[in-house]
């Protein structure tokens, strides 16, 4: 209970100012926002646009805007900065929301329509051989020839072949869809059309040659049903080759570049269509690329804005001409020589602060873990009712590391990805599995892959595929397509893997002979 009360008090301190800090913050806010232009700029930065559920949540929230002017003693009396935001929505936003809703409804209808067609066709395929065998028994049972031993053996063959076909069809076709593609999968549609034409042709032949004349050769009818099942098994083998085996051999190398920060990865793919290659790229993006952090991009923009704000152009003649723009460009070029020094010292100061707060965090976490180890040794001697579970232990040691962790996350601009509840869950997980402090800090010391964070913070349900070629066409050398989401885009460049000519050269083991060359100045 005491651990829980300490955690609650720490959490309240984690979210609010003390009285002295509120006054200091308000006074600092008055000093920083004296001009009306700065007020309008801050008000514009705090506006939030409402998005529909299918869209990706905006990552560039107010929590990511961290001021660079904080010293190393920040947070001694305060642990968090709270603020207000203004929610606004325009007519364009309403129109975009309605369009996204219509698109989502259309995608759902398209997906369910495809599943319905596949299910109906599959039911027709499995019921057709059974109908071929049962219809003569129902319609002209008395006129049929007796079914001998060979005919009864064919019943067992049909049953087991249908069972194998059912399992193979379930494993290949009836899988949970991973995404909604803009176009149908060409090979899958081709196979469905082929199966439909094949079954219809069998029904036409059955109706003309068996149903109309009421054929009495029942063994031949059963053999006809067996031939249908065999043909369906061969079509299933063809589906495995086209859908699964064809793209296994790497043929193309894809370079994927994120448009905002330039992070890139390379992937090898086989013969795939552009839309299927886009799905493979997105599946690998969530586990290979680091999480997109727009707060890291604000430093360069603010630095460029600061340089342009320092330039003043005076209109002496009162004439609006292009000379003003030329003067600003010339002045910016003259100041370019000194800007690299400012960038160098800014980055050096930022690295110094990051290293310092990282050292504080590592020490705080190691001390907290030593406490929980000591508590575990002491709790073994106490009554069972006084022991703590992993959640209570995490709540007990979290206050000792909360301040150092929060200051480090704010310095590295990662605080928007880690809530207090997620940190407590991760800490409880590490305690449960006897993980070291280094294993606990691995998630926070460096940005991890996108899948590592909460689903609501990274998951994007809506991606747009932009390509000059048809998305159902195959990959080719030099093809470029773009995957766009709300905040950034992935540019994919396709290159064909070159043909490699490998030759062989034989070396005789007896040819490894050496001679010692002696010189007068050597010591040998």
UniProtKB/TrEMBL annotation:
Biased composition (Basic and acidic residues): 37-46
Chief localization: membrane
InterPro entries from the UniProt entry: VANGL
Coiled coil location: none
A Pfam entry, by short name: Strabismus
Ranges of Polar residues composition bias in the record: 75-87
Topology of this chain in the membrane: Multi-pass membrane protein
Upper taxonomic lineage: Eukaryota, Metazoa, Chordata, Craniata, Vertebrata
Region (Disordered) residue spans: 1-87
Localization: Cell membrane
Annotated Basic residues bias: 19-36
Protein's name in the database: VANG1 protein
